[in-house]
Amino acid sequence: MFKRIDHIEIVARDFEGAIAFYSEVLGFTLKERMPVPAPPLKEIAYLSLGDTVLELMRVEGATDPERAPWEMGYRMMAIEVEDMDRALAFLAGKGVPVTWGPVTLGPSKRTEIKDPDGNSIELRQW
Asked: Are 99 and 114 in contact, with CB atoms under 8 Å apart?
């Protein structure tokens, strides 16, 4: 019945900066970008990494407490990496600091970084 996560939605404070971070730093590919005539939603961009899709949303007044439903619900996404040490060295070269870890958890390594809006991203090497 349930197959997989179709996509993850993130409301970005800096829409252009988020597109740049996910594409230029983490290697996502911008697949589609379109205006949306449904205020307060103004624009969406779909980015992909393998079969994972990220939907970035430009929302007018996203930091306004009255728009809270547009900010609720995101905790963290996890991106699998082939080699944690290589990934961390690459991110350091891009100016992306580690916010937690890395730690070894049984058969895996785990660390956390943040995107430009402060959203947590887990990196996991199995």
From this structure: yes
CA pseudo-torsion sign 51, 75, 120, 88:
negative
Counts of helices then strands in the chain (DSSP H, E):
2, 8
Cα four-point dihedral sign 114, 79, 108, 88: negative
Cβ proximity of 123 and 84 under 8 Å: yes
Please list the pLDDT of the chain residue by residue as tens digits (126 residues).
556 777 888 888 889 999 999 999 999 999 999 998 888 889 999 999 999 999 898 988 776 666 555 554 466 788 999 999 999 999 999 999 999 999 998 898 999 999 998 888 989 898
| Residue given tokens 């205020």 in the structure block | 39
Q: What is the DSSP letter of 27?
A: -
Distance (Å, rounded) from C-alpha 22 to C-alpha 121?
11
Which residue segments constitute the domains of the chain, with CATH numbers given? 1-74 (3.10.180.10), 75-126 (3.10.180.10)
- Is residue 17 within a helix (H) or strand (E), and if so which, with residue range? helix 15-20
